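Narrative of activities, Objective 1.

The group set out to show that a structural description can be obtained from nothing but a protein's sequence at a throughput compatible with the screening campaign. Below is one input-output pair from the validation batch, recorded exactly as produced.
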Amino acid sequence: MSLFRNTIALLALSMLSTAAASPALAAATESDFKTAFAAADAANKQASQLRNQWTVTATALNDARKAADAGDFDKAVAASKEAEALAKASIFQATSEKEAWKAMEIK
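Output recorded for this entry:
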């Protein structure tokens, strides 16, 4: 795996572990879900504009919606935060690769 791909993987893992390590002080509410989902959706739309949406982000957003529909707002918020982290990692990848290809050696 290239250094660049390792960097992307570490960034995504770091973002996901940070979101998972943050303990909730109280049960999440529908309002908490809506806030977290809106942030994830906005990041996903930005990734779309860069033409670099990841399918796992869409899966996490769908999981968040399903959990919210079932009334499990703790799970819905967690899935929304995961989706946001994935979308931000895809944005990082897209912006990093925009110019990085020029440095590649043609063999």
